[in-house]
Amino acid sequence: MPSSTSEKVYVIGATGNIGIKVVNSLLAREVSTTIYVRDVEKSRALFASSTNASTHLTFVQGDYADLSAFKSSIAGHNRLFLLVADVENMPTIKQDLGTIAYSAGVKQIVDLSSRFALLDWRTSFIGESHRLAEERLYQLALQHGGTVVSLRPSRFFTNHTWTKGALTHLNAVVDCHPSDLKVEYISIDDIADVATVVLTDPIEKHQSRAYTLIGDSVDGVTRASYFGQILNKPIVYKQVSPQELVDTMVKSDSPWPLAYDMATVDTTRAPTDAVPILLGRPYETLESWVLKNKELFV
Ligand SMILES: NC(=O)c1ccc[n+]([C@@H]2O[C@H](COP(=O)([O-])OP(=O)(O)OC[C@H]3O[C@@H](n4cnc5c(N)ncnc54)[C@H](OP(=O)(O)O)[C@@H]3O)[C@@H](O)[C@H]2O)c1
Known about the structure:
This is NAD(P)-binding domain-containing protein. This protein has 298 residues and is of the alpha/beta class. Helices cover 44% and strands 17% of the residues.
């Protein structure tokens, strides 16, 4: 059952990969939506042609570093979509935002977490931050009689844009896994669609669930073949050692803890049932995403 149009949703992270689609989908459903953005003019331009933006979209200028604008604008909203890009400081930022939100009467937070939160305790920098943030939001929800739905996506399809250089210069997809090992991925459109459904379903339906989002598990040789199709040249899979992957990422300015995660985490589960159940359709496949987003790689 769709929510009533008296619902008001607040969105943090509105101008990023996932946030843009969440905001556009909420507006298309005529949900009053407030977005917390660093640059209002840039954001106005971004959503200028969005359906119902002129009537249903409100902009608040703010930053993680100073939450006063969030504090003075959150009252009257019953739901919050919470995506924080600062992985290192995420637990504190989400705790502060969650405290303000629940105290102001928010009943549901939809938190963009990570499937890495399920890895062995403290074995991953990304996992530890997301898990701590989840735990703090969950405790806050219990204290305030609210709910928190944690979305735990695995590796985004869009991460492939990070390694565009290897496609161009080495004609290769480079990773440290054996070539036949299937690794987890997920479409950002699927993540955004799940978020939109949860934000517009009755709050009681999802309570404080956590949804693990693994959409496609693909081995290295198969991934390389998708890029060969769009680039019209042979692309091979090149397996490097975990040490080489870390060194290459650090040379390209990745923080060492992130590079270590990418070289060591075990993300080899099969796709989960969340999208088929919640959205009533199959997950987007990596192949279809690569073919659809050729312009990102040529
Ligand atoms: N990549 C993966 O494989 C993966 C997997 C699981 C989970 N995740 C999680 O997904 C999230 C990233 O999602 P995404 O790709 O949609 O992010 P994104 O495209 O990088 O967007 C980040 C958003 O956060 C905003 N933002 C950044 N710094 C801010 C600040 N100081 N104050 C206020 N807003 C700020 C950005 O606004 P501006 O437009 O002003 O920059 C933008 O709206 C992270 O939490 C990450 O840990 C990623």
